[in-house]
Amino acid sequence: MKGYVLAFIDVEDPSSYAPYAAGAPATIAAHGGKYLIRNGAKELREGALPADRLVVLEFPSVAQARAWYESPEYQALVPIRQGASKGSLMIVEGFGEVS
């Protein structure tokens, strides 16, 4: 079953955030992940946005999403993201086929 990473981020210091944004894609690809959404245009229809920036990643499995997040390469970038932004990040199990 596929694994997804959802991140809701408010970037507070764009220049400090830039190294994170430049470095994260290679760590994602190295674990079989890809961007589905990388802060595209939004059209709010109901409620309130939890953050300005929305990112959705897809991995072949939840285990691979966890391996990416826990990898030394990504963990080296986490303090950069956390120092330049506020937000939430979660790993979500995808919906399986109904039989």
Automatic annotation (TrEMBL):
Coiled coil: none annotated. Residues 2-95 form the DUF1330 domain. Pfam families: DUF1330. Gene3D superfamilies: 3.30.70.100. InterPro entries: Dimeric_a/b-barrel (IPR011008), DUF1330 (IPR010753). This is DUF1330 domain-containing protein. It comes from Ottowia beijingensis.
